[in-house]
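Onboarding guide, step 5: your first structure request.
Type a short instruction followed by the sequence, for example:

Predict the 3D structure of this protein.
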Amino acid sequence: MKTTFYISLLLAGLHAVSHGQLPPNHHNGDDPNEPKHHMHHAGEAIACLKLVPNNADFAFQFFKEIILEVPNKNIFFSPVSISTAFAMLALGARSTTQTQILEGLSFNLTEIQEKEIQEGFHNLIHMLSHPESKVQLNMVNAIFLTERLKPLKKFLDDAKALYQLEAFTTDFNNPREAEKQINDYVERKTHGKITDLVKDMDPQTVMLLGSFVFFKGNWEKSFKPEHTEEREFFVDAETTVKVPMMHQTGRFDFYFDEDLSCTVVRLHYNGSATAFLVLPAKGKMKQLEQTLVKETIQEWSDHLFKRLLSLYFPKFSISGSYEITNMLSKMGIVDVFTDQADLSGITGTPDLKVSKVVHKASLDVDERGTEAAAATAAEIMKMSLPPAIEFNRPFLMLIFDRDTNSTLFIGKIVNPTITS
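The system replies with structure tokens like these:
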């Protein structure tokens, strides 16, 4: 009988949370307003950029799986958080278990070695957490271990070096004390955003592995609170809700995808963060969900152009909490959840398996932002009214980091008045 442990994947996103990832091979063109890549560390950049196509493939494959699990509901998750936690787990996995994890993360092991993958994630974490950025983005990895479980020094050393892992001894035989220790840690690390993460903990647990991203960003051009007003949002043919709708008129990156019948608007945050807001035509959401791949984002990026728009976008807070074991199993990560698991790289003996994987993510979108410089504050408007784009029916929100080409968050907002 294998000893089981939990993996908990968390993400807290705050305020106008968005991190700007442009897809691989994005062309910035000559737009002076387009933030440039600030690759300060060339070696790190090369290492983590090797992961880009694989991480993007994983992100959109997982998106398709999660939609099947929770159809017609709000969805919000962090692909980079899930990938990072399982890459870290792969450090302690051996044989088929390790192969399944890495291939399940969309890596082709004939093209990239495990060592390169681990080095890439190490540099990804470092670059995402760069302190000179104008956005606050922290990736934190932690492991809570029962005292009787003695992890190998090599596993802890490698995990600390590559993933900045923090390790804690926890008495799981006293579930209430263990829950308090873990919840207090998570609440502190997410600045109070995530509370009471673990509940009803099994006293048989021997290890909890946690990975989360904390993000806080400001819009490059803020919305004025006095322009926010209640307007209707059409959830479906039968359901209409009232939402606080933010409003801003100006020049926005815009594209209409005729093949997928959707409108794309890109908003920047200060720093390297970017949000793609995607509004499908009525009845076209399912088609968009089923066909969305990294090449789609690339095409949008290549075709965006500046257009004067009257933009209406809801102010909302959503969170997602998912038990994702089943989804990962469908993607080929199977053995690690069974008695076939080989996690002997963690303890030296193959007596561990993962009992369940929990992923939590949250997003707040509001008007906050830093005004553009005074020289550009007074934009000259044409006398004719610009076309209005109103996000008043279900839409997607994709948040990227341009410096690392990372997909930080993927969200589907079906009803912005439902917070969880």
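Each response can be followed by summary notes, for example: Residues 11-40, 370-383 have pLDDT under 50 and may be disordered.
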